[in-house]
Write a structure and sequence with these properties.
Rossmann fold; 12 strands; eight-stranded mixed β-sheet; four-stranded parallel β-sheet; 13 helices; alpha/beta; about 375 residues
């Protein structure tokens, strides 16, 4: 079992007080063990995943990336915050994720106590991957040396979570993985990364997508996370400006149950994506796979060509008008299956690129420790 961070600090202090010959031999022995771990894929790939008990895009992405790497024999662990948390909404829906190793930053000190400890035990060969919305995790790890710190960019969240005037280099982060090209271009115009990788990810893990056009209802499912007041404005404008369209109902996507969440997609004629912050593109990929029209407001993290197909405006009046235009068209079609003028959903193969990225990360670490060994 790995030692806690506090135990590691005591051990390091003891080593620092030893003779130069002992310190040199200890370092060389440690480096040899690290090279062995890297060569055998025994070094840990740690994905930080926040404890979010509701259906959300970020957790889906992290668990699927971790599962894919584990399938190819990487040593993967998902790190949650508190030891009592279980991602039941996802695991209950897809049991394959139950096989993944899960660990916690905050653990019980023992089976007979309720006291907890947050001294997580890192190893020098670890790679810690944190989604950009939770960049503050690295603020708490300034004392942790050697581990490879990587940011997974799937939103613009880090622009608000970074302290003013602080950049990624200040947090000793020099490696980035971007989940779409638009994000890569945007962040690269603002920050410098020693290593950056593009993983164009639009995978939707639904193997049982069934959508019967005869069962589609005059139902508009919406996502309004952090933007409740604005969405209420949109709905009020819609109903009052277009009273003849009151046949259409709005329903918030059910995030308490994954099966009901997917059922919302199956029954809806339109998806309204108006979250305050866009945490990835999963909701758009889900809509595309179900072949459901989806509209949103201005999103700088989306590809401009794609945004043209789904952009509905920025004010509550503009968006209400766009919804009304769609609803009028939907009512006047002979069937309830609406062509949204977009191409069929095409899943981009990401596994090969994911493996390529993590092989490159392993090579980076080998070169890093090689330089350290040459200096010993």
């Amino acid at each position: 079992m790995s030692k806690s961070l506090l135990e590691q600090q005591f051990k390091q202090k003891s080593i620092d007080n030893s003779s130069e010959e002992f310190k040199k031999n200890y370092r060389l022995k440690t480096l040899d063990e690290i090279f062995k771990q890297l060569g055998n894929r025994e070094n840990r790939i740690l994905f930080y995943c926040p404890d979010i008990p509701l259906v959300n895009d970020l957790t889906k992405i992290i668990y699927n990336l971790a599962y894919t790497l584990e399938k190819y024999k990487f040593n993967v662990t998902i790190i949650h915050e508190i030891h009592t948390y279980k991602c039941k909404w996802l695991i209950d829906e897809d049991r394959k994720y139950n096989k993944l190793k899960v660990d916690y930053f905050i653990k019980k000190k023992g089976s007979k106590t309720k006291k907890t400890s947050n001294n997580y035990s890192f190893k020098p060969s670890d790679t810690l991957i944190v989604p950009d919305q939770f960049i503050e995790i690295f603020d708490n790890l300034n004392s942790v040396k050697l581990i490879h710190k990587v940011v997974l960019f799937n939103s613009l969240g880090s622009l608000s979570s970074l302290s003013p005037g602080i950049d990624f280099n200040s947090l000793k982060i020099d490696t980035a993985i971007f989940l779409n090209k638009t994000l890569e271009d945007l962040y690269s115009s603002l920050f410098t990364f020693k290593s950056k990788y593009l993983l164009e990810y639009n995978y939707v893990d639904y193997t049982d997508v069934k959508r019967d056009s005869e069962e589609v209802l005059p139902l508009i499912s919406l996502s309004n996370i952090g933007n409740v007041e604005f969405v209420n404005q949109v709905i009020n404008v819609f109903y009052n400006k277009y009273p003849y369209l009151r046949i259409f109902n709005f329903r918030i996507l059910d995030r308490n149950n994954y099966s009901l969440y997917k059922e919302n997609f199956e029954k809806s004629c339109l998806i309204l994506a108006l979250d305050k912050t866009l945490n990835g593109t999963v909701i758009f990929d889900e809509a595309a796979k179900f072949k459901i029209p989806i509209i949103t407001n201005k999103r700088p993290e989306l590809n401009e060509e794609y945004l043209k197909l789904i952009y509905a405006g920025d004010t509550c009046l503009e968006i209400a008008d766009a919804i009304a235009e769609f609803c009028s068209y939907w009512l006047n079609t002979f069937t309830k299956e609406v062509d949204d003028s977009s191409e069929d959903y095409i899943e981009k193969p990401f596994e090969e690129k994911l493996l390529e990225i993590f092989k490159a990360l392993t090579e980076e670490r080998a070169l890093y420790f090689k330089r350290i060994k040459e200096s010993v």
